[in-house]
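Repro case for the chain-ordering regression, as requested:
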Amino acid sequence: MLPPALEMVRKLVATPSVSSPDDRFDQSNRGVIDLVADWAAEIGFAVRIEALSGRSGKANLIATLGEGDEGLVLSGHTDTVPYNAERWTDDPFVLTERDGKLHGLGTADMKGFFAAALHAIARFEAGELRHPITLLGTADEESTMNGARALAEHGERFGRYAIIGEPTGLRPVRKHKGVFYVQVRVGGEAGHASNPSLGVNAIEGLQRVLAALQSWRDAIGQRHRDDEFEVPTPTLNFGRIRGGDSPNRICAECALDLDIRLLPGMARAAVVAELRDVVGNALRGGPWTFDVRATGAYADAFAGPSDTEFAGAVETLCGCSAATALFGTEAPFLAELGLQTLILGAGDIAVAHQPDEYVTIAAIERATDLYASLIQRFCIEST
Ligand SMILES: [Zn+2]
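-- result from build under test --
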């Protein structure tokens, strides 16, 4: 017997699993993997825990019920983003219920998913299944996507259809943007502030770069557009700027960190090359040096087919057409394995990565019903 869903979410939230590219915040996800693995085993799953190479304390969970090449995959990540405890009303690791809302780090994104998925599966007996159900729990979605990447590299398909339970407000999502980070560094030469000729000011070079990037952003927005997205153009965010050491010294170096979100079909390498040209042109004729480098590929853009039996069935069940999202997910990796993939889960992406993150009890119950209907349709009725 599984514990009640609320109890499961409480335990998952109480088990820290922050992932971050910054070692000061990064934690193992093994506690969450073990909890989900134990519950999955409890309801008859064959459970595999696969450690990620090169990163200690990180693992993926692959739990399978039934046999065969077809069937349904329910997939979620087991990690959370870092948090600012002082901005939370209550302890982020203590599930706190207020007005039907379950507050806690990772409730919406996406520990609540595992409670919904396991309870949906528990409604069926293994003997009823014509096609298998696979439950995936991945590591490091919020930092490197290395968990999903390891699954994609391994090449095992697990099934024919996949649902990723990221928070979509229970509306299916079949398309999202790609997200990656770029750092632009501008180099100058330090010197005494009293005489500009004693150095080369990197901040003044970066000022040219900023102006050029703003124009370039407008230009790529003219060239690339997809009106299915709420923000129909690629985006470029100036996220962080660092440089200099003192007001009375000429700034020798500064760095600008960008978040760039591309539409499906745009090639990341080509965009980076274009960006490098923009920076080079902005600084041409000046005394600065520069460097442009991709510092992380967070997620590739994803566009699944809209006219499949699977997409149609999910849309009918949800009572709405599939939408688009502005955030990245592991969907490109599952699609690479040959799985028809949609994103569908309880909770609102707007509360994810925020203090007082929550998911409602009603949404977890609704997600459980939807996942159960999909199991019925694609693991039992489907020939
Ligand atoms: Zn997520």
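Ordering looks correct now. The chain has a mean pLDDT of 95.
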